[in-house]
Amino acid sequence: MKSFAMYGSNVEYTNRRDTATILSTFISDQIASFCPESAAIKSASIHAHYDDKAQNLEGIARLLWGAIPLGDEAPDVIEALRLAVVNGVNPDHSSFWGEVTDFNQRCVEMSAIAFAMVDEETRFYLAMNEAERANLVSWLQAVTYIRIPNNNWHFFRVLILMALRHVGARFDMDVLRSDLREIDDMYLGDGWYRDGQGGCTDYYNPFAFHYYGLLFSRWTNTIADHYTSELNAFSHRFVQRAALFAKSFSLWVGSDGAPIAYGRSMSYRFAGAGVWSELANYSSALAQVGLCIEDMRALWAVSLRWWSQQPILSDGMLSVGFRYPNLIASEFYNSPMSPLLALKGFAAVRLPESHPFWQATESDIHQRDACVTLPLNKHIVARQNGMSTLLTGSPSAAELRNSHDKYLKFAYSSAHGFCVESLRWIDQGFIGDNVFAFCHPETRAWLFRTSLQKSELLENTLLTEWTPFAGCVVQTTQWFADGIEWRRHRISSDADIDFIMSGYAVDTWVKCIGGRECREQALVKGSARSSQLQLIEGQGEYDVMPCSPNSNLLFSQAAVPVIHGKIPRGKSEWLISVISEQRK
Fold first, then answer.
1. CATH 3.40.710.10 matches 373-582
2. For residue 370, how many other CB atoms are within 10 A of its CB?
3. Span 75-131, pLDDT tens digits
4. Fewer CB near the terminus (10 Å): N or C of the chain?
5. What is the pLDDT of residues 497-533, one digit of tens each?
6. Does domain 4-366 have CATH number 3.40.50.12160?
7. 247 DSSP 8-state letter
8. CA geometry: angle at 384 spanning 379 and 389, to 5°?
């Protein structure tokens, strides 16, 4: 495995020139193995839920998110991608990508082509002849009346319709207006969107909502028509929300630039970094929430630096996975081309070297300890001891693979990642992080929380109520104090039950013995951090257990501290301190 460090000696991202060189070299490597006639990058041995033609489109379209900001510095790359688009949208060409239909992946990828039409109109759209433009416009217009999921997909169609408006093509303002209202209805507050009514608030928010909202805002006044005033009202709203979002989301970055891993679509990695440079155009909105361009510069740079050192490249392509290639943690909509969406993170290249973003001195915002509560999200986010941590009482996305691991653990961290398949292999001696699991007295299946009956954020304390199975009810209270996370569990059970609870994962390995031991401490030491559980109240035994290989997003081999024992029938209570410390 290789990292972005292979593309240049300077991966500090201290100036635009070196950043553009890294980006253009990476993209050139991607298209070196394809011919525009094929309208695809390369064949793949793994697939998503959509067809091969849509996957071909995905590869070309997602490269555009990185190539278009390069502009004059990558004319050959943009030309090659433009020719691929010309063939892909031509119904008479053998590589035609096909028509968009209801709930179709093509709708997602069309937004990148819309991006190219507006941000690089001369080199991309106007470079096509009249027949080629007609094919492209007709192909994009077909998205207008299809059915789409009622979630962030509304933004894809918004961008497509805005691009049609920009080039003077026919577009349906009623549909655009309807999509904008649907997006409005998904706004939760505090700068955050739910991904659909009752949906999740997660790692996806910056690049699935705010990045697109800021693009929309830039495009609103590219032309003047009798819709401009109405669109400007939405534009203002999107900018204000993005600035407010940045205030809390800035805490999702640890002092080393590592992000909190939480939720789905982790293969998109640093896509969210694009928000920081887009916000650099709105200094007054940032000032209203106590932020500045120097903060945006720092958050963008430390994110790209951390990611550039991680082994995320496989055979020259961005791999499916998070810190390393990992299909276990992927989604059903991840193809080998999907991770290219991360190129949104290089959006800063669109800004000229003279822009205040590139001239700004990086602030120390990512070094500051802070804690914020988001009552509408049911989130507590803290940065302390160099690590960013999320405590969450938000709902899960039940339709996703391993969704309960991705959304319903007690904590998510920038330094420890999270594990999938946390409970699947307990009887074989493995367990995931940050769970409190119970063994069903009859089926002997190990179960954790898969839904929340109650979730409240009261001042600085998160209270959730959940049941692993009928006859067992758990109330969990979580808070931060003195640099430590605390968990109090109150259990009411109709039967005697075996239990096991775990802490954060670290990058070390312990022998899988198929059973549990009793140790003096539930303490495990990794290369950079140690992880420990301390039992303050309640009964249980200490141990350390391995996570199943490749189940943790950061570490292919990992281990966690655990407390295990029996819960007697009736009511029981535990108070545990959950400790993560940097190693000297």
1. no
2. 13
3. 999 999 999 999 999 999 999 999 999 999 999 999 999 999 999 999 999 999 999
4. C
5. 999 999 999 999 887 765 566 788 999 999 999 999 9
6. no
7. H
8. 35
